[in-house]
Design brief:
- This protein is of the alpha+beta class and about 300 residues long.
- It has two domains: about 160 residues, Ribosomal Protein S5, domain 2, CATH 3.30.230; about 120 residues, Alpha-Beta Plaits (2-Layer Sandwich), CATH 3.30.70.
- About 35% of the residues lie in helices and about 25% in strands.
- The protein is built from nine helices and ten strands.
- The strands form two sheets. Strands 1, 2, 3, 4, 5 and 6 form a six-stranded mixed beta sheet that branches.
- Strand 8 and strand 9 form a beta hairpin.
- It starts with 6 loop residues before the first strand and ends in a 7-residue tail after the last strand.
- It binds cytidine-5'-monophosphate (C5P).
């Protein structure tokens, strides 16, 4: 069957409902235990067969497009499956960018995951999900989640070892990104320093218990008050703008306010939609991105 001419995929954002740094590895990466959750807000990526690899987009595509993860993903796939793709096959991508970058929402990773899926289809490879996940893991630790078949997943290893997790309580979510950028390697270093200086050095080991408890209590909103992100204290200590947005959201009494990934975004979980909307309106003027959304209950087809 030949592939259709133009395909479009949503590129949802993710939040981390739980994030524990469990250890430091020989390769410089960290061992994580995280609960990934896709949300119903994100970018949109289209692609059509073309005679070169090109990326178009509006203002949201910043920097040199050649360095963009979308083109890197397509190039990696083309190199790896060279024998099955005509040498002159290209793709023209069009990205509608809404998600901020350097924000802990996985925006660039979600775009790259969609690029791998689009390239696999449009170049008639139709690769199995496991092969796409292996390619995605080479490009970034968060990309496999966006290729996984469930919107809620436990992530271990660098975040690339995934298992489906039960659906969370259907909260209304505020995501707010203050006008600062958090460098991920810096955040890991700060989390290490915080662990040494404040927590006494040892890595925590709560992940297994968290998984067990989440599996039982995922449907109970009060369970979410105990969520944790090991980046939160050290990142908020270094960024007063993030702390201020965290406090402003907290004033609306959500079930939980938390940093997503290594920041800079903060999210808040609300039971009532009008509370969520009021909180978004209050923080939007001091944010580069602010949205009221919901937790995704299915992944894009
Ligand atoms: O894989 P990704 O590009 O997201 O990683 C960016 C950086 O974050 C890595 O170079 C590494 O310094 C750090 N990192 C880490 N442990 C992880 C994921 C990322 O130390 N599990």
């Amino acid at each position: 069957m030949t592939a259709p001419a133009l395909l479009t995929l949503p590129c949802p954002a993710k939040i981390n409902l739980y994030l524990e740094i469990r250890g430091r590895r020989e390769d410089g990466f960290h061992e994580l235990g995280t609960l990934f959750q896709a949300v119903n807000a994100g970018d949109t990526l289209s692609a059509e067969p073309w005679d070169a690899l090109e990326l178009y987009g509006g203002e949201g595509v910043t920097g040199n497009p050649e360095d963009n993860l979308i083109l890197k993903a397509a190039r990696l796939l083309k190199t790896r499956y060279e024998a099955r793709i005509p040498r002159d096959a290209g793709l023209r991508f069009h990205l509608t960018k809404r998600l901020p970058s350097g924000a802990g929402l996985g925006g660039g990773s979600s775009d790259a995951a969609a690029a791998l899926r689009l390239a696999s289809t449009l170049w008639n490879l139709n690769l199995p999900t496991a092969d796409l996940i292996a390619l995605g893991a080479e490009l970034g630790s968060d990309i496999p989640f966006f290729l996984a078949p469930t919107p809620t997943a436990y992530g271990e290893g660098r975040g690339e070892r995934l298992e489906p997790a039960p659906a969370p309580y259907p909260f209304h979510v505020v995501i707010a990104t203050p006008p600062c950028h958090v460098d991920t390697p810096w955040a890991y270093r700060e989390a290490g320093r915080y662990r040494q200086e404040v927590l006494g050095g040892a890595f925590g080991d709560s992940w297994t218990r968290f998984r067990r408890e989440y599996a039982v209590h995922a449907g109970r909103p009060e369970f979410y008050a105990g969520l944790r992100n090991d980046f939160e204290a050290p990142v908020m200590a270094g960024f007063p703008e993030i702390r201020a947005v965290h406090e402003a959201l907290q004033a609306f009494a959500p079930v939980k306010t938390m940093l997503s990934g290594s920041g800079a975004s903060v999210f808040a979980l609300f039971e009532r939609e009008d509370d969520a909307r009021a909180a978004t309106e209050a923080v939007a003027p001091r944010c580069r991105y602010a949205v009221t959304t919901s937790l995704a209950s299915h992944t894009p087809a």
